[in-house]
Amino acid sequence: MRKDFVKTDDKEVAARIMEMMKESGAHLEGHFKLTSGLHSGHYIQCALMLRFPEFAAYAGEMIAERIAHKKPDIILSPALGGLIIGHEVARSLGVPFIFCERLEGVMRLRRFPHPGKLRFALIEDVVTTGKSSRETAQILAEGGAEWVSSASIIDRRANDTHKDWDLVSLWKLSFPIYEEHSCPLCKEGLPLVKPGSRPG
Ligand SMILES: [Zn+2]
Fold it and tell me: Which residues line ion ligand 1, judged by CB < 5 Å?
């Protein structure tokens, strides 16, 4: 693993990530139903940013800088959203990358042997509630691996959730989110869009 990581200033990184989202068309504005069920006027579709390899490499390098001190032996991501960023982080740290995928509703490590009692970092594109993060990490933790770090490009969690959970992110979203019954965008009658790939 590389030893020469110097952490770039957090504000500088967040500003650059915001720019990259705008430039790539990944920052959508309108009326969206988030994975959590809450409504928002903003949605970040990370895949649109990650289609540009130089942007993906930058995000991966910045996450790597922030978790290198935890010395993960391997990177784990959930497919599909975590594939590109997880791979970039692993490349930057010089460690292997594996992924799990949802089969019949359950997260499984389908294509890889369990890595055993290694230290692993969980890498995702966006964390919305943290529920699927825990489910993903559990797969390796159950086999004796140690969950040493979690990181995402975007932290979309509500401010009052999971204070106990140490999530590293490059951009903490602060756009307002609404319950359906109190959503001003619903009151305006704007059509509701449910982006993303998760069913339900
Ligand atoms: Zn609404």
Answer: 39, 183, 185-186
